[in-house]
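[worker-b] picked up task from shared queue
[worker-b] task type: protein-ligand structure
[worker-b] ligand name resolved to flavin-adenine dinucleotide; SMILES cross-checked against name lookup, match
[worker-b] sequence length check passed
[worker-b] input payload:
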Amino acid sequence: MKIQENYSLKNLNTFGVEVSAKYFAEVKDLGDLKYAIEFAKINHLEILFLGGGSNVLFTKSFGGLVIKLDLKGISEAFLNEDEVLVTAKAGENWHEFVQLCLDKNYGGLENLSLIPGNVGTSPMQNIGAYGTEIKDTFVNCKVLNLGSMQVEEFNNEECRFGYRESVFKREGKGKYVILDVTFKLSTENHQLKTEYGAIKTELEKFGIENPTIQDVSRAVISIRQSKLPDPKVTGNAGSFFKNPTVSANQFSKVQKQYPQIPNYPNGEMVKIPAGWLIEQCGWKGKQIGNVASHELQALVIVNKTGAATGKEIYDFSTLIIESVIEKFGIELEREVNII
Ligand SMILES: Cc1cc2nc3c(=O)[nH]c(=O)nc-3n(C[C@H](O)[C@H](O)[C@H](O)COP(=O)(O)OP(=O)(O)OC[C@H]3O[C@@H](n4cnc5c(N)ncnc54)[C@H](O)[C@@H]3O)c2cc1C
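[worker-b] inference finished, payload out:
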């Protein structure tokens, strides 16, 4: 494995921001990974692990070692007549993995079709869409502990999954590399989730009354393609902010002023769609310099001209945060990892 110097990361981040890594390594197995980590330790370099680069914003070039995880391989083991355990290594592309499972008629991941990125990153923020999160089918993941350099296993509970959260984004941040992930999927009697978003309407449009998991996947893909910008065409990282969760008390104060505010009560707390808040502040479709809020989904910030710097995108996101605080008193949190 070669460690390269001054390596361009433009094609390795979906914002398409032109930055470089002082050192860069693409690792294909555990041996490569350990070697690259050792190289960084000896040379006192900061390490950044990279999957598909679809949830990062580089605000500057990276002065350390970027390790691109390219570990490949998928295996399966049948648990019983109805269930199968499928394990994919970190560098497998998420959507291709979902499609492979669907080709084999394994159910559980269909609502997560077309999410960019790699399998190894999926537990980081418990990726989710259309009423499903990976925690619903996640069994465990193998990780390399960067302190002990031993391989360990985290089960579902130990990952402490939450909304776009896991132990790997909190107390475990920077301590582990995820090597592979195992999911428990159905082989028979699939439990379809079609209530969320426009899935039902889309299936009706297709003229499908008794959908299969493959039909649900097709519906999800069609909805996503109609709403979200394709990063290959317009640089973006999907939802830039998390949907904020506020106390019922705070919510009722905001609701008095804005009775039409959409909301999803969750115990003592209330979740509010960040896209709605941003849109109400007049950001939808608005462009400043090279950066814009997407015209169909205000929550997505795009590299409109293709020439945006990470700093410009970051500053744009700060303006959005400030205006939402000013109008609603609610502070948005960035979902994208800022580097
Ligand atoms: C158009 C678009 C739509 C999207 N829609 C959704 C959606 O519906 N739902 C959703 O949840 N997300 C969505 N996302 C965000 C993104 O696809 C996910 O967060 C995805 O899991 C990121 O994977 P990645 O491999 O590209 O991560 P990267 O951007 O490469 O990395 C993200 C973070 O994880 C770290 N990391 C990467 N791999 C590992 C590893 N193996 N071990 C430890 N740390 C690691 C990186 O250092 C970085 O901090 C969308 C993004 C885009 C561009």
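[worker-b] attaching auto-annotations
[worker-b] The pocket of flavin-adenine dinucleotide is lined by residues 14, 48-56, 69, 90, 115-118, 120-122, 124-125, 127-129, 177-178, 228, 231, 236-238, 337 (CB under 6 Å).
[worker-b] releasing lock
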